[in-house]
Amino acid sequence: MTSVPPLYILRHGETTWNAMGRLQGHFHSDLTDLGRAQAETQRAILGARDTDGFDLVSSPQGRALQTARIVMRDMPGHLRTDPALSEIGLGEWAGRDRATLLAQTGAADGFALYELAPGGEGLDALQARCSAFIATLRRPAILVTHGITSRMLRLLLTGRPLADLRHVDGGQGVVFHVVDGRQYRLTLGA
Prior knowledge:
By secondary structure, the chain is of the alpha/beta class. Helix content is 37%, strand content 14%. It contains seven helices and six strands; from the N terminus they run βααβαβαααβαββ. The relative contact order is 0.23. InterPro entries: His_Pase_superF_clade-1, His_PPase_superfam, PG/BPGM_mutase_AS, PGM_Phosphatase.
């Protein structure tokens, strides 16, 4: 992979569907009180960093935009959206209960569901989408995205194989700093 500028990558805060165990994909549910607090935490984490001159880019999906507006409200610059940062498509399974699907399909874990979802995007297509997005980056940026898309971006940026996706660290209310092919998990006070 060619040289990529420094990036801060954030997952949106907890949503009502996250709290209920429902898969979202391209569907929307609002941030919970905890989700808004997680976004405020991300805002504080970035507030302690020098982000002057960073592009501000979010997934166009509502939960990511809600998070981005909280995180970036005091930052200079224009927030733009890019559909490449959208969550992996889940086809017919969007909105369904994760635990029920795991039981019905016998899938080993939630990651397996992304490959099994009828009409879903699949991990190979997500990988291609994220690779194409990374190739467009010319300036340092703060990216607000989703759980699986965040993991895929960071997997690619750190040169790991697709088989490692389920082992890439996740989390809401944290910020991942990726620079020179290395990932750092930032939390308040760290």
